[in-house]
Amino acid sequence: MSAENSFEYGQFKLKLLKSSSGLKEVDLGSASIATFSLYEDIMSPTMTAKLTFAVVDVLGSKGLELYGGEELIGSIRVTNFPESEIRVSFRIKNMHFLKESNKTVYHLELISYEALQNEVLRIVKRFDGDIGKSVSTIFKSFNSNKTLKTETTYNKYSFIGNNKRPFDLFTFLAPKAVSSGEKKSAGYLFFETQDGFTFKSINTLLKGTNNTIVYTKDEAKVEQNEGNKYRILSAFIEKNNDILNSLRLGMYSNVSFFYNLYTNDVKFVDYKLKEKYNKEIETSAQKLTESYPPLPGNVQNFPSRYYLRTLDVGNLDKTGKLSSDTMYPDLPKYQAEAVVRYNLLNSQILKIMIPCNPSLRAGQVIECRIPESASTLTDKSYQSQNTGRYMISSLCHLFSGKECYTSLELVRDSYEIKTQIA
After folding, report:
1. Which pLDDT band, with edges at 50, 70 and 90, does 286 fall under?
2. How far apart are CA 338 and CA 301, in angstroms?
3. Do the beta carbons of residue 205 and residue 189 sit within 8 Å?
4. Which one, 36, 129, 277, 332, has the greatest CB density within 10 A?
5. According to the 3-state scheme, what is the secondary structure of the chain?
6. pTM strictly above 0.90
7. Is 129's pLDDT higher than 60?
C-alpha cells in the first residue's frame, strides 16, 4: 500500500520500487517531501522531474542506498481538478545527498524509462516512404507501453539509421517532414507528455482544438478557489519579436540556392513569410485575421539573408537510382521554409503562473486574456498584442508542502487584432 502526503490543494502518493541495486519497495509517506516538480517541453523528447525529500536517520540503518535507475511511481491529484490525475513513472538519473544531524536530504533528478533505453538502442536499418510511418517503426524498438501519436507527411524520405539513437533520428527527421493537407508546412516536433509521445507538425499543434481553455489575468480576484482556477497569477513577456535578429535570420524573406549533388542542378527559392501567413483562426471570442504588421520601409519584402545549401533528397533507392517520390517539385521550397520555421515559432514568448492544472499538456493551445491596465478592467478591454491563443511550449507542475502551481512558457508566431470580450 502506497503512502499519501497531503498538501493544501490536494494529495499525492509516491513510492520507490525495487531495482537491480537491491532496494526494496519504499513508501515515501514517512519521508518529509519538500518539493516535486514535473516538466514537459515540446523541444525535449522525454519528460523530466525533480524530487526533494528528507528521511530521518535510524540508528544502525544504512539509509536508502540509492545507486541510480530505481523507479519512482505514484499519482498526484489536485482538489480543483478532481477528474485529472498526474501519473508519475520515472527512473532516477542523478542524485545528491545532504547529511544533517538527524536526517538525510535526498535530491533526485528523474527521467522517463525511454530516455535510458535510448542510450543503448541503435538503429541500423533502411527506411523509405512516409516519415511519420518511419518514426512509428523506429519507436517500436523501445517496446514501450506508452502511445505515439503521429500524422502522415506530404513528402517521402529514404534514409539509413547509421547506428544512431532513436531520439537523434527523430530530431533529424523533424525539420525534413512536411505536413499533408491543404496548407502544407515544413517542421515537425517530437516530445513526450503524460499522454505519451507525439510526432506532429507545428501547424497542426498551433491549430489546437475547439475546446480551448481560457485563462484571464484579473487582479480583482486573488483567492485560489473553484471559481477562480482559470486565473493568471502572474504574466511576463520574455520575447516579443526582435526585428533585427529576425532580419538576420532571414525570417521575413530569404533567398536560397540549392545544389543537387545527383543531377548537378541548382534551384533558386525566394521565400517570403507574408505569402505563407494569410490565415484565419477561430477563437472563443470572434474570428481573427493574423498577419505580421509592416516594418519600416517595408524591409520585410527584401531578402535579408542568402543561403547556399545542398538539396537533401535522401538516399538512393535499392536500384541505385534517385526515387521520384523523394524528388517532388516543391522540395526546395519546403527546405527553405524549414530554415526559419522553428525560429518563427519562438518569435513571441509569454510566461505565466497559474493555479495547478494537471490536465494541461505541452503542445496544447490555450487562450490568454491580459487587460491593458487595472483601470480598464471594468470594460473588459484586453491588450492587442498579448491577448490571444498560445501553444504551451513547456510546463512545470510544482508541488510543495503547502502549495501547488503550474508555470507555463507559451509561444505563438503571430499577432492578433484587439479583442473585446463580451
Report:
1. very low
2. 19
3. yes
4. 36
5. CCCEEEECCEEEEEEECCCCCCCCCEEHHHCEEEEEEEEEECCCCCCEEEEEEEEECCCCCCCCCCCCCCEEEEEEEECCEEEEEEEEEEEEEEEEEEECCCEEEEEEEEECHHHHHHCCCCECCEECCEHHHHHHHHHHHHCCCCCEEECCECCECCEECCCECHHHHHHHHHHHCEECCCCCCECEEEEEECCEEEEEEHHHHHHCCCCCEEEECCCCCCCCCHHHCCECCEEEEEEECCHHHHHHHCCCEEEEEEECCCCCCEEEEEEEHHHCCCEEEECCCCEEEECCCCCHHHHHHCCCCEEEEECCCCCCCCCCCCCCCCCCCCHHHHHHHHHHHHHHHCCEEEEEEEECCCCCCCCCEEEEECECCHHHCCCCEECCCCCEEEEEEEEEEEEECCCEEEEEEEEECCCCCCCECC
6. no
7. yes
In 3D, which of 380, 362, 62 has the Cα closest to residue 196?
Answer: 362
Residue 422 has pLDDT above 50, yes or no: no
What's the confidence (pLDDT) of residue 92? 92
**And the C-alpha cell for 344?**
518563427
- Model pLDDT for residues 299-352, shown as the tens digit of each residue: 888 899 999 988 888 877 777 666 655 566 678 888 888 878 887 888 789 999
